[in-house]
Amino acid sequence: MELCDLTAHHLLSLLKTKEINAQQILDSISQRIKKVENQIKAFVRLDSNRFPVETINQHTITTSCEKILDGIPVAIKDNICTENFLTECCSQILQGFRPPYDATVITKLKEAGAIILAAKTNMDEFAFGSSTENSCFGPTRNPWDKTKVAGGSSGGSAAAVSASETILAIGSDTGGSIRQPACFCGVVGMKPTYGRVSRYGLIAFASSLDQIGPLAKDVHDCALLLQVIAGYDPKDSTTINIEVPNYIAALEKDIKGITIGIPKEYFVEGIDEEVKTIVYEAIEELKKLGATIKNVELKHTHYAVPVYYIIATAEASSNLARFDGVRYGLRLESENLISMYSKTRGRGFGAEVKRRILLGTFVLSHGYYDAYYLRAQKVRTLIKKDFEDVFKYVDCLVTPTSPTTAFAIGEKVNNPLQMYLSDIFTISANLAGVPAISLCCGFTKNKLPVGLQIIGKAFDEEMLFRVAHAYQMHTQWHKQKPPL
Ligand code: GLN
């Protein structure tokens, strides 16, 4: 094993005892990128001739080890603003966009001593997608099987962690974009509670659903990274001003006596038999560790996908109105303003983005607003209430993260509905605003990772870390490495 294959918490202990230094970690990452990136394509605009890989804040590499992530490399998704460093959302319309400021999560990472890699990770354009195939730079490949997708939209971040091209990564999740790629690539990913992490500097997709979150090799690392990025931010009025608990301390607690709910709506037809069996085995394991298992219902689950695609597209159509050729990125000159707008937007946006702007504009239009948007909001409230009701009796819920393992590149590109359905198990947590984590719980016969999702009460990320960590302490799945 190379240094790049180790977890952040392991590397931090080696740094503390001065067995290694931060530069060696970065060199190891560089070597790995050089070796595998051509096959994986986890990063965008990466100049493979510029090695060792550069960092945004190289000058801060210290040997002090005083701060929580001192010397640990972190890769950032292309929709999170980094001051003066290209941030294009993998869209042609943002070509050449250099944000004038850092997102709050970037500021926090720098303050924590993390090393920000100067290469953004690949994603579906504007985070619209489940496979990273909607990126204007082409798809990321799954490190476990390069003919398969890495998932999306944070596919680059998940693949980079899985292939050890970074130690930690940041993604964003609007309907599953951290958890589903984490599941497909066999790593850990968490969508925190809505309001737990600042969205300041995250290029907005659907503002009432978006959250930034961590991707890591194990639960301990995931907790470390959330510890750094979580917290109230006066620059984001939707963050909540409550104390951030000590997530590392939460890892120490066992799970004897906790109650885990199994929602029956998540084990219905359409789910791959092998995935189902492997997830049931993981539930048995949790039982052995002392948890009580209880069957529960989330009655409105089957409305989640349609409700999401109304609300998310409505918000996206409005958020993307700002990309007009005047203020950001691409601009195609033309004889008058209106034709400049339409040329720029016509050329700058990819097919899926246009589809969503059309859908979103439609559901918000006069005459349809009440029938679609308003109704979807009401059903969203019912979905949220399902969770509130069930959390009166259980401490968390366990489900598969995705109904299938990673699918083939190209398999769903011409069938948007099929693609939308791959988020069927992750979307509800965004609609309800509750936190959820995905971790690997086994492999299929074809050696593809299967993901276990744990969903918790609002602001109870501690419970998710506790259950997921207890599981990893008694299993070995998270230690498996893809064949590179
Ligand atoms: N795949 C979902 C979509 O396309 C979720 C994307 C996300 O979470 N950003 O909308």
Instruction: Look at the helices and sheets and give the structural class.
Output: alpha/beta
Rg is 21 Å
* Oligomer kind: single chain
Q: What is the helical fraction, as a range of percent? A: 25-40%
> Can you list the strand order of the major beta sheet?
2-1-5-7-6-11-12-10-8-9
The CATH architecture can be named as Alpha-Beta Complex
CATH structural fold name: Amidase signature (AS) enzymes
**CATH-wise, what's the superfamily?**
Amidase signature (AS) domain
Order of helices and strands: HHEHEEEHEHEEHHEHEHHHHEHHEEH
Average residue pLDDT: 96
Let me know the number of strands. 12
- What is the CATH level 1 assignment? Alpha Beta
The helix tally amounts to 15
What does this protein look like?
With 484 residues, the protein is α/β, with parallel strands linked by helices. It has a single domain, classed as Amidase signature (AS) enzymes (Alpha-Beta Complex), CATH 3.90.1300. It is built from 15 helices and 12 strands. The protein has helices spanning 8-16, 22-40, 104-111, 155-162, 179-185, 219-229, 247-250, 273-288, 304-319, 337-348, 351-364, 370-390, 416-421, 427-432, 461-473; strands spanning 73-77, 115-121, 141-142, 145-149, 168-173, 188-191, 211-216, 259-263, 292-296, 396-400, 436-443, 449-456. The strands form 2 sheets. The chain has a 10-stranded mixed beta sheet, sandwiched between helices. A two-stranded antiparallel ribbon has the order 3-4. Helix 4 runs parallel beside helix 5 and helix 6 (219-229) runs antiparallel to helix 15. The longest helix is centred in the last third of the chain and has 21 residues, at 370-390. It is globular, with a radius of gyration of 21 Å. The relative contact order is 0.14.
